[in-house]
Amino acid sequence: MSAPDREQRLVFGEIAEQYDKYRPSYPDALFDAIVEFGALHPGDRALEIGAGTGKATAGFLARGLDVLALEPSAGMAAVLRAKGVDTQESQFESWTPPAGGFRLVYAAQAWPWIHGDDRYERVARALATGGTVALFWNKGREWTGQLGADNDAVYAQIAPALIGGGQWPLDWVLEDLAGCADLEPPTKRVVTWSRSYTSEEWVRLLGTNSNHRLLPDEQRSRLQAAVGDVIDRHGGRVDMIYDAEIFLSRRV
User: Fold this and answer.
1) Residue 187 in 3-state DSSP?
2) CA distance 217 to 194
């Protein structure tokens, strides 16, 4: 299937098992911050939008929440169901939630893929009065020093269109949340954490990124092999610092 025939937000399903194995999860402090903000308790109903393979789902299930996961990709939804997660294979835009049915509505990495001018109002309608919306992302910091320079050189040579793609600003989420009359003024929190990767793990992780998935197969293979070689020349392992940005609000 050629790139124009593939919808970018659904390409993750092509490599669902790889995504589940190599994509990072989220730190405990992130889940704790959301539970505290929302005054959530075991048994509270939660709706996850764009659940993927359950990287964030697991953290809320571990805290006793009753999670319903929406996931439009058949491949990703299959992984979720295999884990015993209550899953509906649906896009949020075409799904009708029970009014006021959830104490928490959240999306992990998925919110930019949700379309519709009324998406915030749809979230608010799904929330019980005082219920919490939490939109959050892991943002990896750019590598610095010679490692960063060598990595940038590889992208400049093989896939220059992808340079700088990881440093997307997110504060537009605050503005959008503030513009929804059904939600309280939002707040932002940041949890910083880190994870170490071998060169093989990092290359496999790159293979789950949507912008890499959309590259022609030969170009993607050359790029990932070259990135792996860079990491091997720098000791075979890299530490990635993540800033998990959390945007929070409540239903008025």
Assistant:
1) strand
2) 30
Backbone angles phi, psi at 160, to 5 degrees: -60, -25
Tokens of 44: 């509270």
Query: Residue 201: how many CA atoms within 13 Å on its side-chain side?
Result: 14
For the chain, first and last CA: distance in Å? 46
Dist. CA 219–CA 221, nearest whole Å? 5
Give the model's pLDDT for residue 1.
Answer: 35
- The β-bridge partners of 140 are 242
Q: What per-residue confidence (pLDDT) applies to 214?
A: 84
Residue 24: strand, helix, or coil? coil
Mean pLDDT of 133-149: 96
Domain extents for the chain?
3-141+167-194+242-250
Contacts of 144 (CB under 8 A, 6+ apart): none
Write phi, then psi, for 164 (nearest 5 degrees).
80, 5
Fold assignment, 3-141+167-194+242-250: Rossmann fold (3.40.50)
Digit-coded pLDDT (tens) for 204-223:
999 998 888 888 999 999 99
Mean per-residue pLDDT, 77-92: 96
pLDDT digits (tens, 9 = 90+) for 24-58: 999 999 999 999 999 999 999 999 999 999 999 99
